[in-house]
Structures are given as structure tokens and as C-alpha cells.
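Researcher: Let's run the pair from yesterday's discussion. Sequence first, then C-alpha cells, for each.
Model: Starting with the first of the pair.
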Amino acid sequence: MDNLKKLLAPKYIDAISSVDEEKKIISFNNDSVHIALQENRNLICVFAYVQPKKALEKKECVDIANSWNQKKIFMLLCYDEDVFRAEYYLSYAGGINVDNLNASLDYYFSLLSGFAKSLNEYCSD
């Protein structure tokens, strides 16, 4: 985890709210966004949970996730138990550098923000 933290830009280091060495998870922004190392697969998984602002039918949520996944190829949405999980995977099998990791995190956060905004708009209708 220390090696991963060394690659993070200062804005991400400052946003760290907790580190679970055993589970290999770094959490940001009051534990709302997480980075998990999946060493057996040489992957870094960035994920967050997004709660709809109002109760929606499960079919509606599955349709929202499926529609997002058809249009956006980098952030995968899953829906389970009344919450969306927004996942983004980076392979580090060939190594990873500071610029790539931080640009990927920037992109993930922009996608996450875009999804949260569109979900809020959907729930406001």
C-alpha cells in the first residue's frame, strides 16, 4: 500500500480518510471512494457506492446501470441491494506510473460525478 500511496498526487494523498492494510484498501473523501489492490489479478480497483436520492424500483436501477454501461466503457456500474457500485479497473501487470495512475483517478472522478449528477436528475423527475 505504501508503494501505491507514493504514486498518488498530493490532492489524493490529502483526501485519504483511512487505510486498511489487511484488506489492501485506501479510502478517500470520508470513505466514499476506495482504491483496492487485487494482487492476484494485478489490478487496481477504484470503486464507490452511489445511493439514489429516492427509492427506485430494482428494474429501473438495472436499466439505468445497463444504459450507462452501454455508453461508457471505462466505469462499470453494478446495482445491488438499493445501491449502485461504480467500478474502474487499472492493470498494473506491466507497471504503472504516476501520470497514468493520477490521470486515471481524475477520469474516474469525472465519470463518477457525471453519473451522480445524471442519477440525481433522474430522481428529480
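Model: Moving on to the second of the pair.
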Amino acid sequence: MNDINEKKDIDEIEEIIEKRIAELLDEGRSLDVDDINYYRRDIYKENGWDEDPYPEKGEDDEEFWKHKCITIYDYLSEVGMSIWDFVPRPY
């Protein structure tokens, strides 16, 4: 294990990360962004860094939720209503 005060250069660490991820993929493992960030963080810590300065980006939150959540407009449309059904009308 490396001395805690010994920090490797970012380029050296990125090479280590690339090799490690390539090994895992060769073993047939499927890696998502969270898995990759776990290995990146672990390797950076092993090499004297507190955290990964360049973590992998996941899906954009807006894009992620756009496909996962149904909006009130979509729900009302499914039941044959609209938001205007809730607006008070003068009689």
C-alpha cells in the first residue's frame, strides 16, 4: 500500500482506473456509472487522494425523471380530464 502522503499524478491514476475497468469488463461484469464511480473513488483513495476529482456523470436528472415520472397532466389525460376541470367557473 502507498504511503498516505504519496500522491500519484492524475494521469497515472487514470491509467490504473482504465486497466481495472478493462479487467472487470473482460471478466464479463456489467458496470453502470455507480460501479465505475465506486472503483474510481477507491483507486483515488488508495493513491493518496481524498476523493475523485472527476467522477463519471450519470444521467441528467431532468432526463431521468422525465421518463420515470408521470406528470399530473399525463395522469389527468389518461382518465379523460384536464387541469381546466379544476378551475372554478363563474355561473
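Researcher: Give me one sentence on the second I can quote.
Model: The chain has a mean pLDDT of 82.
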